[in-house]
Amino acid sequence: EPVxxxxxxxxNIMDHFTIYGFCYLMKTKQETYQYFVNWLKxxxxxxxxxxxxxxxxxxxxxxxxxxxxxxxxxxIEHENxxxxxxxxxxxxKYRGQTLEAIAKNMMSDSGISxxxxxxxxxxxxxxxxxxxxxxxxxxxxxxWHNRKPNLSYLHTFGTPAWVNIPMELRQxxxxxxxxxxxxxLFKFWxxxxxxxxxxxxxxxLEHDGLQKFEQESNKKQYNVIVKSPLYNDHKNDSNIDESVxxxxxxxxxxxxxxxxxxxxxxxxxxxxxPRRERERERCKNNS
Length: 287
What we know:
Layout: E1 3-4, E2 9-14, E3 21-26, H1 32-46, E4 53-56, H2 60-63, H3 65-74, E5 77-80, H4 90-110, H5 117-129, H6 140-145, E6 160-163, E7 172-179, E8 186-189, E9 195-199, E10 202-204, E11 222-227, E12 245-250, H7 256-286
Parallel strand pairs: 4-5
Antiparallel strand pairs: 1-9, 2-3, 6-7, 6-10, 7-8, 8-9, 11-12
């Protein structure tokens, strides 16, 4: 079933040694405690190491008694940086700015709605972890996992895909917006909603290029009527049918300049016919 997110805050955690980052979607700041506890357990279980020091900004979600007592029991040194001197925690500051810039570029390039900016941030974090860092000269993923990543699963943000959804008889055309934790699940967004689908069975339409959304232009047919000019003061003009009309079919992509040019050309053709006939008659009379 689709999952609807109502996210206001993103918790950004980064390891200072490997520059590997984690992002968590939160509705309120009160969820910071539980998300950090879960992250701490995950680190101790997967890395087999203890967190020694934690640097945070001086917000209330990190300075309350509950959070401080948890860090004290875990033996973690807590250091609060001054809000007026963010250079003390410049790594996480610049990382947050970079994540925001990448997310904006991806949404602008793909045309994805800004309603899912949170998914764009999560996808940008995944991309940064698999991009060479200028400080270390290595991939954060490589330094964190001690192995090189397999990047064959990466896809362009906003790429359309035919996704198999359980309990439905046909595939749905959704748009790729992120990755799962095991690199086998992908996140897809349903256009016009805030629904996010998780699926490992999808056919990506990478050949569609950068323009992800189908913008079907209505090629309407317009009839432009070109009337022949009227000639009433010459005897030989009687063979010209004043009611002659010609219809020209054009599309909306044609410019008005081209239409006017065609009109002038056709009117000139109509006006030349009686002159030539008059010249012939004059030559006959003179002879």
